[in-house]
Amino acid sequence: MFAFVNSDGTVRDRLPVTLEEMKSLYADMVEARTYDTKSMAMQRQGRLATYAPFHGQEAAQIGAAAALSEGDWVAGTYRDAALNWRAGYSWRLLILGRTGDERGGEVPDDVNILPPSITVGGHMIHAVGLAWAEKLNGSHRIALTSFGDGATSEGDFHEAMNFAAVYQTPTVFLCQNNGYAISYPTWEQTKSETIAAKAGAYGMPGVRVDGNDVVAVLVAVREAADRARRGEGPSLIEAVTYRVGPHTTADDPTRYRDDEEAESWAGRDPLLRVRLLLEKAGGWDETWQSELESTSSDVIEEAVEWAERVPEPTREEMLSRMFAPEDG
Amino acid sequence: MTDVNLAQALNGALDTALGSDDRVVLLGEDIGRTGGVFRITDDLQAKYGDDRVFDTPVAESGIVGAAFGMAVAGMRPVAEIQFMGFSYPAYDQVINHVARIRNRSNHRFTSPLVIRIPYGGGIGAAEHHSESMETIYAHIPGLKVVVPSTPYDARGLLLAAIEDPDPVVFLEPIRLYRAVKEEIPEIYYTVDIGPVKVESEGDDVTLISWGAMMKETRAAARQMRDRGISVEVVDVRTLVPLDRSGIVRSVEKTGRAVIVHEAPLTGGFGAEIAATIQENCLYTLLAPVERVAGDDTVFPLKRSESHYLPSVERIVASAEKTLEN
User: Fold this and answer.
1) Would you say the ipTM is above 0.85?
2) Which residue in A228, B79, B152, B283 has the fewest CB atoms around it within 10 Å?
């Protein structure tokens, strides 16, 4: 498995990122976790609709987004808030969406991130069509689609992978293998040795990376993105990670897994290892940590307050979204 | 002007669209080298290249999903599904994404694509090749559903569908592909998506139909006219958006309505039209609204097709029933 940073913060190989970049990735992961923690709390308070936490998957999402360039397309799911945010989707709009408001999907014109897909498989092929259009238009934009291990069981996964390979579209398939499709463990739902191995059948490269190692994910996605931009077609990246929380706020994981399993993953936390690494390199201290946490908290609080101040949608607005507004 | 059948009119419309708008691309199974199972895309790949007209793997969900992505990124894809029965694997894409992205993103992202689907029976095809399930598309908010029945409308409506800023399911009556011919202009023109067409005016009874059944409906109208009955024929042309006032106007005038469709009766689009008439014409109606439709059965194979398909005789009988009042 492709990895740079071990769970104890030691490094396997020469790091391809600077200390400053490492600090920035860490800060982003702290901000993302703050959002996730607050979102869980807000859902319990009845301020958010159902929420799907990404706790434990911060490295997979921040690392992947950090590898993208401006204008690149992102088609992810309900669990990809950290990915979407790091790629350019504001916390404000993400939170507005999760309060149960379609206006949360209205990203600015220069942000090419599709609103989170709630169905788990249908959006993968969208990243093929998006990338295909960019290729036909001769642009250098690529499209990244993010999905879970469960989505690889959908027929749509096959069609998307096949189309991408057949037309050599600049698409990056990022599978966050977090161990479960709600309650169904990865090892039960496929007899492939790994999810990355499935890529071979489609004639594209597949790589398995430690999804809790932000550097490994960043490097793997960057390589795939570069390859796509060079016209060398799609790739599949399997980021092996773990969903520490429930599937959603409506789920009860104690029905299908024991606490020890989740606890064993706490030692493999994606934030902790970077913190240990930075500490050794003299790039982390308690003061900075408190600053990060307090700034993140302020940013998320502000976004929540903003979303809650957005006026209630009118019936007319609901009715007006089906078709293009009538021309003058 | 050129004398063409409906299939040739569609081919010409696609040719015109490819020639006039670089954003237009075609994708579907066997549409390139062979020109499609019905030859609607004949010669277009040779003319515009394999980077405008794509043969695709046999994967309808993939075709529609990829076309959706292309449309979101600013292109104007026209996807072909070979037969209506093969459109169902793509139904998830249509209902969950194609029809919804405008709503999901509050107008930020749109999917201006056209999904062309040959539909209807009467050609003795294999199972799944003869369906008339227009209602399952008309029921999806966010989709437009168009069904031409003449070469002129086929060209104009298809060009309008490609121009349209929203997704359009474009249903092509297989039985009429080569059964109707007329002179149409070769210039770029569109027919508005929406308005019904009053094909022929009359005072005694309105026959309302669309797509493939227009042939039998026209024949029934001719028979009745020969017997001195004044028949108005309305071609609905667009199921969504439905021109309710156009239908109401005609029925208010004649006081009698017969709705003809090939799809199964129960839950068929005729029910929506009948409800519209009931809501608006109750006091001018001279007889109950009649529906002549397919049976509530699976579309039968060749040897039973004539049992299923609404016939000219059935249409005439239903119209005569309304005239008893």
Assistant:
1) yes
2) B283
Token digits for A115? 């609103």
**Domain B2-184 superfamily per CATH:** Thiamin diphosphate (ThDP)-binding fold, Pyr/PP domains (3.40.50.970)
A interface residues, B as partner, C-beta within 8 Å = 73, 75, 102-103, 105-107, 109, 114-115, 117, 119, 122-123, 125-134, 136-137, 143, 155-156, 159-160, 162-163, 166-167, 321-325
Pairing mode, strands A171-177 and A143-148: parallel
How is domain B197-323 classified at the architecture level of CATH? 3-Layer(aba) Sandwich (3.40)
0.95 exceeded by the pTM? yes
CATH code of residue A150: 3.40.50.970
- The active-site residue, picked from A33, A98, A126, A247, is A247
> What pLDDT digit, counting tens, does each position of A28-86 carry?
999 999 999 999 998 899 888 889 999 999 999 999 999 999 999 999 999 999 999 99
Q: Does B93 touch chain A (CB under 8 A)?
A: yes
Q: Rounded to an integer, what distance in angstroms lies between the CA atom of residue A261 and that of residue A255?
A: 13
Show residues of chain B in contact with A156, CB under 8 Å. Answer: 61-62, 65, 92
Domain count, chain A: 1
